[in-house]
Automatic annotation (TrEMBL):
InterPro entries: AAA+_ATPase, ABC_transporter-like_ATP-bd, ABC_transporter-like_CS, P-loop_NTPase. It comes from Spirosoma endophyticum. Keywords: ATP-binding, Nucleotide-binding, Transport. Residues 2-235 form the ABC transporter domain. This is Osmoprotectant transport system ATP-binding protein.
């Protein structure tokens, strides 16, 4: 579904993404995991052309992304960021309707899809006319996802989608969302630095360090057969008391 070949991004003399190659299958959830600054977000943003690569290639569904206009590509690829990424002056209903409207859907079809998504994401219809500032963090997150899923895109990119939530709400919202049939059929690339989130959600984890993929595989493989000490230490995030 997504094929990344020798992808490199340099910002001046700094190499943020360094010769990354990976293939992501249809319906797969691939988690890009790693410390702050290791190049996860830069990799993600090159898939929907918010950032242009220095070299290398990315194809989505067999088509090179550089052969597609950025705005058109971004309409077809869902994108969810921390705290939902909602426009403050768009109501919930307007936010979810944005891309279907751009694609010329009939108003009745848009309304039907809005109601369907509200039900699926367990959002009360009473918030349809509210603005993001009038929602809870968990609701904003779900509305952000509803907006990203509105046209049933084959691919959804998520950048720390639960990062703004407290640990309890975070677990709850992510279990709810990833339990949706709709998301199961979608190819998801998710960026996080949260090890338990990666283990819980990923079909495969790509653990990154300094712009490179250190190990890629199913969570069990990284846990049981870490390629090196970095992988072992990174995944060993059990809380430990500091002795004094
Ligand atoms: N526009 C930019 N100009 C210069 N350097 C940049 C730019 N964007 C990112 N970088 C640098 O590239 C590196 C990778 O950044 P990136 O945002 O991809 O990391 P990340 O793994 O997503 O980190 P985080 O989890 O903190 O978001 C960092 O060192 C960052 O400072």
């Amino acid at each position: 579904m997504i094929d990344i070949q020798h992808l490199t991004k340099r910002f001046a003399s700094h190499t943020a993404v360094d010769d990354v190659s990976l293939a992501i299958g249809q319906g797969e959830t691939l988690v890009l995991l790693g410390t702050s600054g290791c190049g996860k977000t830069t990799t993600l943003k090159m898939i929907n052309r918010l950032i242009e690569p220095t070299s290398g290639s990315i194809s989505v569904d067999g088509i090179d992304v550089v052969k597609q206009a950025g705005p058109e590509l971004r309409r077809r690829i869902g994108y969810v960021i921390q705290d939902g990424g909602l426009f403050p002056h768009y109501s919930v209903a307007q936010a979810i309707a944005t891309v279907p409207k751009l694609l010329g859907w009939e108003p009745a079809a848009i309304q039907e899809r809005i109601h369907e998504l509200m039900a699926k994401l367990q959002l009360p219809e009473t918030i349809l006319n509210r603005y993001p500032a009038e929602l809870s963090g968990g609701q904003r997150q779900r509305v952000g996802l509803a907006r990203a899923l509105a046209i049933k895109p084959p691919v959804v990119l998520m950048d720390e989608p639960f990062g703004a939530l407290d640990p309890f709400t975070r677990r709850h919202v992510r279990r709810e969302l990833f339990g949706l049939n709709e998301l199961r059929e979608t190819t998801v690339v998710l960026v996080t630095h949260d090890v338990s989130e990666a283990i819980e959600l990923a079909d495969r984890i790509a653990l990154m360090d300094k712009g490179r993929i250190v190990q890629i595989g199913p969570p069990d493989e990284l846990l049981n057969q870490p390629a090196n000490d970095f992988v072992r230490d990174f995944l060993d995030d059990q809380p430990q008391r500091i002795s004094r």
